[in-house]
Structure formats: structure tokens, C-alpha cells
Design goal:
By secondary structure, this protein is mainly beta. The chain is 12% helix and 32% strand.
Length: 285
């Protein structure tokens, strides 16, 4: 997950408030109930502060509701005039959860519990999902293991948040299950986007692919852990590394590495030590 892709959504006569995620420069994913009855809405993205961390939010951008699912709580938003919401290096890859062991997942959104008089704020959560729980109703049940709102109503606004297992988008936050523990959330599996043939075709045209390899605990656990960036020395190192790599909030290289799951410092070191070929210099004419 990249925080640069997380969007806050507001719109409609009922003042719908939710979260979404950019799948591609001009295409965003959210929950259907966030945009129910709307033809258009507005969204805004987080902007980086002077150190490259998520800080203020950007300007509101108009979006049209491009597609909603009749059977699932999924919707797609498109840029109103064809202009990208934000330029992105790579598109998102969607995955399907599998396996018996619980899988670690994470999400970012704008729940009502963090709405202040002048702004809303971000909540990042870590959770565990068992791929077989909720399988008959095609739902993912998230056992939230980090900070959560004290009341169920405080989750409102988190709807539509993208749920990631490692580097794969696996779900979209849907609702708070009424009869489960207070730590539970429910999400719609993201692979259902491809169940609708025209929608799947449009997603692939935007370079959003459905991974053939299932996502299980083994897949997630083998991914390299992201680094942390604290203190003056680490901040200086980050500033140097950012000359060569675009870095996500976990310290992983988004660009400038052979593998975008690679820790940015490792990608930087590999390039400086010429452990893998650098991009050829431009040919002068």
C-alpha cells in the first residue's frame, strides 16, 4: 500500500464520507454504499510534508461514479474530465486470499472517530484475516489488532478503504459486523472486481491485474520488512536515498529497484555498488 494513493471522499446531499484508493492515475476504488445514488463526488489526496511523510491534504478533485456493483459493495470512480487524480509509477495488483493460517493485512482510512471541526485524519490499522471465514457470503472478516474507535459509529468514513496483504490489494472495507467482537470489520474481496467481464477488461486496460498466485500467510511473511526513518541520521539517509528511489510509508522502494517490494536502502545500496545495471545514460544527438 502507498499512502499517496489513499483518498478521502465527500459528496452527495447526505454528506457521504468515505475512503478510497487509486488503482491507476485516473481510476479509484471505494465501497458502493459510499457513493450510493450519486453520479459524481469529490475526493482529495494526502500530500507529503518536507520529510516525505503524509502531511496535509490536497485540493478537492471532481470524480464521476464510473461503475457500481449490483451484487457487492464495490464501486469505481473516474476522473471527471479524464485528467489523472495523481501520476503514479505503477498500477495496483489485486490478489485473492487463500490458506488456513491467518494472514496479516493493513489498511488506511478516514474514520469519523478522527474527524475534527476543521479536518479529518488518517487511521492506519493492522488486522488478521482467515481466508476461509465468511467464504460462503464472499466476505473477509478482519480482526483489528491496533487502535480502533471506541464506538462502532466511529468507524464510519473508513468504508471503502483498501485492505492490503503484503503488496496485494485483497479487499475493500465494507461494514462493522453487528454480532461479532468489537474488534471486527468486514471487507469485500477485491478479486470480485474481475467477476464482471467489462469491468475486468477496463481494469486490465488501466494495467490493474489480478494476480494468478494466491496470497496466503507464507506469501506475506516472505516479503521484506519495511524500515523505519527516525532521528537525524536516518532522516539524512532517507534524503539521500530519495534521490534514487521513490519510497512508500513502510520504507519500501516504489521505483528505483528491480523489485518494488525491496527496502529502499537496499535498492539504493545495490545501485551505488553497481550490483545491478543502472539505467543507460540518454543518447546525445
Amino acid at each position: 500500500m502507498q499512502w499517496q494513493r489513499v483518498i478521502e471522499i465527500h459528496g452527495g446531499p447526505r454528506g457521504q464520507h468515505g475512503t478510497g484508493y487509486l488503482l491507476a492515475p485516473g481510476l479509484a476504488l471505494t465501497a458502493r454504499h459510499v457513493v450510493d445514488g450519486l453520479k459524481a463526488t469529490e475526493l482529495r489526496l494526502l500530500e507529503a510534508d518536507e520529510l516525505g511523510f503524509p502531511g496535509r491534504v490536497g485540493a478537492w478533485q471532481k470524480a464521476r461514479v464510473a461503475w457500481t456493483s449490483a451484487d457487492t459493495d464495490l464501486a469505481l470512480l473516474a476522473a471527471a474530465k479524464g485528467k489523472p487524480f495523481r501520476e503514479l509509477a505503477v498500477a495496483t495488483t489485486v490478489g485473492r486470499l487463500d490458506g488456513r493460517a491467518p494472514v496479516r493485512v493493513h489498511a488506511m482510512g478516514f474514520p469519523r472517530a478522527l474527524v475534527e471541526p476543521t479536518h479529518s485524519d488518517v487511521l492506519q490499522l493492522q488486522a488478521s484475516v482467515n481466508a476461509w471465514s465468511g467464504a460462503r457470503s464472499e466476505a473477509l472478516l478482519l480482526d483489528v489488532q491496533t487502535t480502533r474507535p471506541a464506538e462502532d459509529d466511529g468507524w464510519k468514513g473508513m468504508s471503502g478503504a483498501a485492505v492490503f496483504a503484503g503488496d496485494r490489494l485483497v479487499g475493500v472495507v465494507e461494514a462493522v459486523p453487528k454480532k461479532l467482537a468489537a474488534s471486527a470489520l468486514r471487507a469485500t474481496p477485491a478479486y470480485l472486481l474481475f467477476a464482471d467481464e467489462p469491468t475486468g477488461k477496463a481494469l486490465r486496460a488501466a494495467q490493474v491485474e489480478l494476480a494468478t498466485e494466491p496470497v496466503d500467510a507464507k506469501y506475506v511473511d516472505k516479503l521484506p520488512l519495511g524500515g523505519t526513518w527516525g532521528g537525524t541520521r536516518e532522516q539524512y539517509a532517507r534524503a539521500v536515498v530519495e534521490e534514487f528511489c521513490s519510497i512508500d510509508f513502510q520504507g519500501l522502494a516504489v521505483t528505483g529497484a528491480l523489485d518494488r517490494r525491496m527496502p529502499a536502502l537496499a535498492a539504493f545500496t545495490a545501485r551505488k555498488l553497481r550490483l545491478w545495471p543502472q539505467e543507460p545514460p540518454p543518447v546525445s544527438r
